[in-house]
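Form 7-S
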Amino acid sequence: MYSKEVVVQNQVGLHARPATFFIQRANEFKAGIWIVNDERKVNAKSLLGVLSLGITRGTKITIVADGSDQEEAVDSLVDLISSNFIDAQ
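Output:
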């Protein structure tokens, strides 16, 4: 298991379009991937799960992965969020 924390800085948080980019990237990996926010943990490959967290700008989340490509998956998703989703467009 591998995890990293990241603060969501883009204007709309992880909602609608950014969430779609996030999920598309998450689905490129074999590892199971989750987003942890406070006490809640959701599947990072599920649009409804990600949207249900209501992640807004300034929210600190933890991305957790478990599987053969777990480090690559977490690092890629953290980079995507840190870039404000610029490299997804």
